[in-house]
């Protein structure tokens, strides 16, 4: 088993800088008890779930660092550093078993573990970071003096553009640009002839990319092993625990609406004005107005409607009724019907696509002619106010919402909108448009029940 | 749509709707075009990337694993055929001549021949190589051009495409180190870019995404107001784009589009300044004044206390109007199908010819040869009994450009790479056999 042990200081100041950060390269041959199996996994899961919440609330990196530090201390840390390490490794591998089994679960686990690694790495001191890099065999070359001289102006320019002051002491690594996609994408580094020049502090990005790739491959392998033998071998011992753990924290994905939640075409206008979140109201309105939506808009709205309970035949009728007014029924059938059926898993590789979550919608990039995305993020203040006004939001609620938007808490803004338009509080917080819809219907249904005379 | 457009229509080469062939006339023209003009051998040589040779390092299955798609229009309907593949140039030629597609798209190279994909488990059929591609469409700039809109373009607004080519081409070569880049006129209102270095072909989706995001500066859907925001000093790439290309282009744009002479036009610019007091001061002073752009620049760059937070405003305005607007999704995907060069655009009859990025300022979309024109030239040449008559048509120059500026250097690099890879592999095998 390979782990990284940095120097342990005896009688240390307890600053936590001596923590070891394992890379989970291979399954441990430690012996542990069955109770530890479940408990350790749940403790780690708490940390991962907290990270997930923090990210969806748009917390900044520094806040995330604090969150990770607190959560780790509360759930995972032991007085004895060796015991902490043991729990760290065991819990990671147990959760790998739990989350390797489905694509969505793998994706979630991969993202959260990478995030956890990222913030823990940032909290390490320079030496610990260096030894982790050695572990990962990062043989990226430190930029030589001669080459540095020729590009130092550009390096400074790039650094200033991200509010980072580099000085002659800053160490730069010369790295193929393919290895640091995040840094390239956000233009945080200077690139020249295919190489990115990464200052030491940005090395986090490099390291995380590799970590992520390793864990991703490992998850695929674990999945195969699970299906091939472990599931069967362990069906009386570990398998039931793994199943139970898998159901613990996953939020519903709304891809299969409950039967009683089916909606029909004649209700759709009414439902749009009372129970659709703003993003879907906007798309719906634009569709009615222009009799057209571009691809991403069709995906975002179409999958939402599927999640809400609109059946395929009704969906086809709905989109045809709108689109045929602009492009004609024939062109609709030829060019657009296919992709609607595709969304419902009736064409191509028959994947049953899941409606987009808030996180995915917030991170989308609407461009010219697009109406998808999250209005709280993508609309100008003026347009957002107008849209909220149309929903009947005003006064104090409007101010609170705009305040959340300015602080980039888009989902909280949406939650406040829900509260303002329904006149009730929403405890859980919105992180999925279909959740908004479901909560809204629940509210109206219970209101109707109350107004009916009791037997 | 005004007098400006009428003036450009005096050029006799401008397509007018009477001469754009449709329906069965289009099919007839296409038959002749595919029979005599389409450069099959050159396209094959390109997409084979050196694997069509006899060197033992060549992979003869490579070309056959590329997906093509055909759009075939008949009087009654339109059929779209995906997953077409060909073993060699001759098969490709036979198929294109037989089917006469109105559009040919090029997709990715897959793990196996796309026509045989059903024989494999889903996990066995994946895209493994694909050029890095870009698609720029002038209709995405409709909110900043006043001479044309939608699918039209003229010599007044085409410079936006020229600028886009310059900015992107420079970055691809300087920043990313790519050298085998093909720019193609899309036939009506835009340009496509194919980056063909092997390093580019092997990029993963994530890496393509990163490159697309690197270029993504103009952001926002229909409902956001300000599409370009710079919070501090510019990254070297943006600074270079500004100084070498965008700044001067904007100055020209101000005059060709008369941006400061009409209220709705300069109002749009004022909306990009996030300071109410500055905006109202300018608006007041402009009631009768015509030197507005100079005034605006002067005010925003004055460095006065009032304009502290507006230091980047000029750049934001310039970028909003002139920076390339890419269709990001085209670049990010690995199996997005993109129209092949040398196709005929069915809406205009124009050929999708290559553009030399070093001379992109000279490119004139209104004088690109059309299929009707080529056929006329062919007939004229034949009637005077000239030999090699295709080479004496207007298409010859484009094929020549394709070969000399793009294909020949590319093939040379590919052959070198193939040989090196082969030699390395042989050496490794030899080493491992040493007892």
Question: How would you describe this structure in keywords?
Answer:
heterodimer; A: 455 residues; 20 helices; 4 strands; 3% strand; B: 435 residues; alpha+beta; five-stranded antiparallel beta sheet; four-stranded antiparallel beta sheet; 15 helices; 43% helix; globular; disordered N terminus
Describe the protein's architecture and organization.
- The complex is a heterodimer of chains A (455) and B (435).
- In chain A, helix 1 (34-56) runs antiparallel to helix 2, helix 1 crosses helix 3 (81-99) and helix 3 packs across helix 9 (239-246).
- In chain A, strands 1-2-4-3 form a 4-stranded antiparallel β-sheet.
- In chain A, strand 3 (190-192) and strand 4 (195-199) form a beta hairpin.
- Chain A starts with 33 loop residues before the first helix and ends with a helix.
- Chain A is mainly alpha-helical.
- Residues 1-19 of chain A have low confidence and may be disordered.
- Chain A has helices at residues 34-56, 61-75, 81-99, 103-122, 126-135, 145-161, 181-185, 203-233, 239-246, 268-275, 278-290, 295-308, 312-327, 329-343, 358-362, 375-378, 381-390, 395-406, 410-422, 433-451, and strands at 141-142, 172-176, 190-192, 195-199.
- Chain A is built from 20 helices and 4 strands.
- By secondary structure, chain B is an alpha+beta fold.
- Helices cover 43% and strands 11% of the residues of chain B.
- Chain B has 15 helices and 9 strands.
- In chain B, the strands form 2 sheets. In chain B, strands 1, 2, 3, 4 and 8 form a 5-stranded antiparallel β-sheet that branches.
- In chain B, strand 1 (66-73) and strand 2 (78-84) form a beta hairpin.
- In chain B, helix 3 crosses helix 4 (89-99).
- Chain B is globular and about 75 Å long.
- The chains are: A mainly alpha (455), B alpha+beta (435).
């Amino acid at each position: 088993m390979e782990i990284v042990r940095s120097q342990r200081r005896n009688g240390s100041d307890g600053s936590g800088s001596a923590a070891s950060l394992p890379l989970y390269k291979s399954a441990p041959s430690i012996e542990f008890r069955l109770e530890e199996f479940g408990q350790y996994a749940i403790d780690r899961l708490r940390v991962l779930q907290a990270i997930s919440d923090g990210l969806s609330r748009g917390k900044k990196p520094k806040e995330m660092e604090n969150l990770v530090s607190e959560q780790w201390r509360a759930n995972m840390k032991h007085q004895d550093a060796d015991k902490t390490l043991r729990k760290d490794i065991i819990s990671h591998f147990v959760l790998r078993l739990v989350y390797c089994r489905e694509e969505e679960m793998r994706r979630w686990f991969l993202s959260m573990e990478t995030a956890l690694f990222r913030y823990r790495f940032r909290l390490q001191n320079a030496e610990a970071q260096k030894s982790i890099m050695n572990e990962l065999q990062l043989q990226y070359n430190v930029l030589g003096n001669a080459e540095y001289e020729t590009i130092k102006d550009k390096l400074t320019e790039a650094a200033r553009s991200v509010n980072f002051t580099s000085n002659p002491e800053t160490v730069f690594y010369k790295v193929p640009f393919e290895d640091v996609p995040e840094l390239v994408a956000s233009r945080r580094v200077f690139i020249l002839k295919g190489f990115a020049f990464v200052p030491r502090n940005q090395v986090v990005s490099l390291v995380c990319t590799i970590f992520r790739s390793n864990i991703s491959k490992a998850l695929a392998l674990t999945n195969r092993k699970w299906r091939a033998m472990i599931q069967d071998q362990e069906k009386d011992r570990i398998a039931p625990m793994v199943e139970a753990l898998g159901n613990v924290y996953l939020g519903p994905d709304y891809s299969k609406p409950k039967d009683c939640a089916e909606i029909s075409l004649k209700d759709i206008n009414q439902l749009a004005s009372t129970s659709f979140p703003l993003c879907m109201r906007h798309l719906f309105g634009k569709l009615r107005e222009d009799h057209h939506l571009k691809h991403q808009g069709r995906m975002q709205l179409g999958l939402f409607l599927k999640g809400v309970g609109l059946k395929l035949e009704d969906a086809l009728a709905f989109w045809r009724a709108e689109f045929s007014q602009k492009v004609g029924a024939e062109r609709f059938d030829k060019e657009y019907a296919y992709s609607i059926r595709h969304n419902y898993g009736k064409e191509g590789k028959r994947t049953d696509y899941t409606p987009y979550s808030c996180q995915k919608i917030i991170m989308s990039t609407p461009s010219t002619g697009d109406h998808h995305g999250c209005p709280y993020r993508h609309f100008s203040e003026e347009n957002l106010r107008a849209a909220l006004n149309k929903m009947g939001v005003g006064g104090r609620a409007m101010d609170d919402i705009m305040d959340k938007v300015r602080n980039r808490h888009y989902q909280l803004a949406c939650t406040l909108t829900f509260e303002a338009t329904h006149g009730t509080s929403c405890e859980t917080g919105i992180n999925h448009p279909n959740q908004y819809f479901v909560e809204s219907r629940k509210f109206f249904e219970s209101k109707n029940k109350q107004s009916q005379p009791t037997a | 749509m005004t007098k400006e457009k009428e003036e450009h229509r005096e050029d006799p080469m401008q397509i007018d709707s009477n001469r754009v062939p449709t329906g069965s006339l289009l099919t007839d023209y296409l038959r002749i075009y595919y029979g005599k003009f389409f450069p099959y051998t050159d396209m094959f040589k390109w997409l084979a990337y050196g694997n069509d040779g006899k060197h033992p390092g060549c992979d003869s299955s490579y070309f056959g694993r590329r997906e093509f798609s055909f759009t075939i229009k008949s009087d009654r309907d339109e059929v779209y055929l995906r997953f077409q593949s060909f073993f060699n140039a001759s098969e490709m030629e036979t198929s294109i001549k037989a089917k006469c597609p109105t559009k040919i798209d090029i997709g990715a190279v897959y793990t196996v021949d796309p026509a045989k994909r059903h024989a494999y488990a889903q996990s066995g059929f994946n895209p493994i190589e694909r050029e890095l591609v870009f698609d720029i469409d002038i209709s995405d700039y409709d909110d900043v051009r006043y001479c044309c809109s939608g699918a039209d373009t003229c010599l007044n607004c085409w410079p936006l495409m020229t600028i886009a080519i310059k900015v992107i081409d420079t970055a691809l070569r300087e920043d990313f180190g790519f050298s085998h880049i093909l720019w193609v006129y899309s036939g009506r209102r835009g340009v496509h870019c194919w980056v063909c270095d092997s390093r580019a072909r092997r990029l993963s989706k994530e890496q393509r995404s990163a490159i697309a995001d690197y270029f993504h500066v103009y952001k926002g859907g229909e409902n956001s107001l300000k599409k370009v925001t710079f919070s501090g000093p510019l990254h070297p790439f943006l600074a270079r784009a500004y100084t070498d290309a965008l700044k001067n282009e904007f100055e020209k744009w101000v005059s060709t589009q008369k941006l400061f002479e009409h209220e709705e036009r300069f109002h749009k610019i004022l909306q990009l300044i996030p300071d109410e007091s500055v905006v109202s001061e300018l608006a007041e002073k402009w009631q009768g004044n015509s030197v507005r752009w100079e005034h605006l620049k002067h005010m925003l760059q004055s460095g006065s206390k009032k304009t502290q937070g507006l230091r980047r405003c000029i750049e934001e305005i310039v970028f909003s109007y002139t920076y390339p607007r890419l269709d990001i999704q085209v670049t990010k995907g690995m199996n997005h199908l993109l129209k092949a060069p040398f196709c005929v655009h069915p809406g205009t009859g124009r050929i999708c010819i290559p553009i030399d990025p070093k001379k992109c300022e000279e490119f004139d979309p209104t004088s690109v040869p059309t299929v009707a024109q080529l056929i006329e030239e062919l007939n004229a040449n034949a009637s005077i009994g000239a030999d090699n008559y295709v080479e004496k048509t207007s298409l010859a120059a484009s094929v020549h450009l394709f070969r000399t500026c793009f294909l020949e250097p590319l093939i040379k690099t590919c052959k070198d790479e193939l040989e090196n890879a082969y030699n390395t592999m042989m050496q490794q095998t030899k080493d491992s056999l040493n007892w």
